[in-house]
Amino acid sequence: MSKTDTAVGGCYNDTFIIHNDVSYEQVWCFRARQVFWYNQKNKAFESRVLAYAPVIDIKDKEGNFAGTRALFWLKADTNPSKFFKNKRFNYIFQTKMKDNAPRFEDFKVIKGSFDFKKFFGAEIGNPSHPFLSRDNYSPADMQAFRVECFGTDTIVTFHPETYEEQISIEHRNCIEQIEKIRFVQNWYYDEHRNRLYARLTGIAPLAAIRDAEGELRYYKPLFYQMYR
User: Fold this and answer.
1) How far apart are CA 149 and CA 136, in angstroms?
2) CA end-to-end span of the chain, whole Å?
3) 227: three-class secondary structure by DSSP
4) Global pTM value
5) Which of 27, 76, 110, 158 lies 20 to 30 Å (CA to CA) from residue 147?
6) Residue of 173, 225, 179 whose CA lies nearest to 202
């Protein structure tokens, strides 16, 4: 692969064309542009990949890391209309969004509106699809999960001067902690047609875990809800 840059310099603002060879080994990930929507009939999120691009690192003149860039964008084909059959694909892998999981306000809304917290609250009360534990991906114990999510904590503290015991009750509500959504996708490569397809297979709400001062420590999935 070859990357072409245009540079302007010199006393007469001369234009220089610089050709930089790019090795396939420099490509360390792919960036995808996707559309996500909620299918009310199936009560499930769905997605379509619009395009994807190989990504390389950018370095400054001293050779230090200065960011990343997409080399080019490839338009993605629509998924095959027939049911996916694993035997027709040469390579299948699964991805789970981590740091790139979107916050609700990150979505560029094209049509309608969607209340994510209300949705997850309703699903916890009456799931439309199986829930899996965030720890071992086994079927979740919904009764235990609801206690964890909406239970109460008894907090015992002592006055620093009188050492008098003080008891307070705090009510948990994990819905209020949800700030992101993680999409789980299967990717299928058809070597014969040289095409890459994606299929959304599940979601997970990500709760923000904060310290006593309110500083964000990390995000954790509350559960996984799988569609297939």
Assistant:
1) 18
2) 38
3) coil
4) 0.79
5) 158
6) 225
